[in-house]
Amino acid sequence: MITPENEAAGGPERLEDGDEVGRVIVSEADLQARIVELGDRITADYAESPPLLVGVLKGAFMFMSDLSRAVALPVDVDFMAVSSYGSATRTSGVVRIVKDLDMDLADRHVLVVEDIVDSGLTLSYLQRYLLARSPASLEVCALLVKEGQQRTELDLRYVGFHIPAEFVVGYGLDVDERLRNLKAIHAYAGSLS
Ligand code: 5GP
């Protein structure tokens, strides 16, 4: 918002310039270029049977928006919201479904669209949960995978980027619900509780 005070100082402070926003881990240009590649692969792989894209809220909302437009097929889109028990930065692997899917998965080709895989426990739980609904197939497209953190064997068909094991924000990913609307993925430079 432009107020008389910040206008005098040259306009509102940009989000990217805040103290908590650290170095760029994946730039906006790299994100967009990779999403085009992922979209092309998904378009080719699912040409005969357009998938149901299942986004995991809230972190995947921006990735889902861009990825769904990069897929040149008549996809369906649904969302679920999960919250994992644990500290702010570490999941325990115990997941609560906060919002379930609206659509029936039976005989659908389901592609889970996930923001980030850290320990992998959340995704592993979700895969088991969704498989119980008898989809025709179930695959995962994860934008980010943290190097060397996975505590469970995961089969990730599509991965955007492997990143260092540090806490990141932006492009949908938050810290205490903030910084989701950064255009790039940044290291978080504030203090984590
Ligand atoms: P996992 O179960 O794989 O350890 O954790 C997955 C979930 O934890 C993600 O869907 C995301 O919500 C959260 N998460 C893991 N690492 C990060 C991170 O670096 N930044 C943010 N903002 N969330 C993360």
Write the layout of secondary structure elements.
Elements: H1 4-8, E1 21-26, H2 28-45, E2 52-57, H3 61-70, E3 76-86, E4 91-99, E5 109-117, H4 121-131, E6 137-146, E7 158-163, E8 168-169, E9 185-188
Helix pairs in contact: 2-3
Bound molecules: guanosine-5'-monophosphate.
Protein described:
There is one protein chain. The protein has helices spanning about 5-10, 30-45, 60-70, 120-130, and strands at about 20-25, 50-55, 75-85, 90-100, 110-115, 135-145, 160-165, 170, 185-190. The chain is α/β, with parallel strands linked by helices. It has a domain at about 60-170: Rossmann fold, CATH 3.40.50. A 6-stranded mixed sheet has the order 4-3-2-5-6-7, sandwiched between helices. A 3-stranded antiparallel sheet has the order 1-9-8, with helices on one face. β5, α4 and β6 form a beta-alpha-beta unit. α2 (about 30-45) packs across α3. The longest helix has 18 residues, at about 30-45. It is globular, with a radius of gyration of 18 Å. The two termini are about 30 Å apart. The relative contact order is 0.20. The mean pLDDT is about 90. The chain binds guanosine-5'-monophosphate (5GP). Guanosine-5'-monophosphate binds next to β5, α4 and β8.
Descriptive tags:
193 residues; alpha/beta; Rossmann fold; 3-stranded antiparallel beta sheet; 23% helix; binds guanosine-5'-monophosphate
Provide a compact summary of the structure:
This protein is α/β, with parallel strands linked by helices and 193 residues long. Helices cover 23% and strands 33% of the residues.
